[in-house]
Design goal:
A hairpin with a 2-residue loop joins strand 3 and strand 4 (108-117). The chain has one helix at residues 2-64; strands at 75-78, 81-93, 96-105, 108-117, 128-130, 134-136, 141-142, 144-145, 163-164, 169-171, 179-181, 186-187, 191-193, 204-205, 225-227, 246-250, 255-258, 261-270, 275-278, 282-292, 297-299, 307-311, 316-319, 328-330, 332-334. By secondary structure, it is α/β, with parallel strands linked by helices.
Amino acid sequence: MKRRHQRGTAMLFSLGVVVVLTTLGSSLLLRSMNENQLGRRSAARQSAFFLAEAGVDRALLNLRTPDDLTDDLVTGTLLTGTFQIDSPPEPLGSLRWRVTTRGFSQQEERRMEAVLQLTPQSVFQYAMFGDQLVSVGGNATTDSYDSALGPYNGDEGSPGYNAGHNGDVGTNATSAGGVSIGGSIFVDGQIVVGPGVDDPESVVTGYDPAFITGGTDPPTDTQDVVSAPEAVPMPAVVVPPELTCDDFTVQGNTTVTLTPGTYCYRNLTVQGNATLTASGQVTIYVTGALTAQGNSVVGVLNDPTKVLFQMSATAEATLEQTIQGNNTFYGGIYG
């Protein structure tokens, strides 16, 4: 009798262990399934978020090409799902827009609202730019080069060749005569006129496709002269009040190296065979005349972005004999 009782107790204990293990196993299985489902939902939500971001990028591209409606997509499909741009962007003024997008991945949806600030084009993307008039002539050539690859080298057959075809000439003008070309000027790039011009070539006086590459190699006549999508802003030059503007002359056969900073001169003259350069980033305001005489050098050879001249409304710049190549200028002039 005692032995039967012991066997019954052992059986009950075994059944209890089985029940406990089954319960634990079921709990772990349910937990694993729940965590797996949560993981999938989390991944889908993250994918939906990134898809909504892709919609914002698409909206930004649409805004950057306002005159080209053929690429204004409002939906898109990627590997992980789709995105949608809700309604047209809402203008907020000063090139600011509010856009709303949605991303969809599996059963998840994420909504994103963003305010986009467009950066106006810079005049320094052009070799030359004039607000309402550009007049070029003589035996000049405009092209471009990558200063990160070293000094300018236009010899296509040499190892250090780094010249490009982005020597564009631009203007905000939209009427005839906005760009005047004379002499043997060669533009290795495009001529860009103001926005909304149906016939851009009508703005250019003296246009000859033989002297304009259109920014391609080999040259093409299909995009020599184009109309910009928007006008390039040209804010007035304001000399900081804390600066004193005096006359300054770099004597012939000498070199003056400016340390990084901001300078102001009334009349700045670089005499023949003289060099005005900089050891870092400098901005030079000129209220009178900037004169660089023959055989002079102005700027930083390996990095033209280091020297920027800001010309006030009363200033003028004369780079004597530049067309003949006896004056070398590495930098930017704005004003």
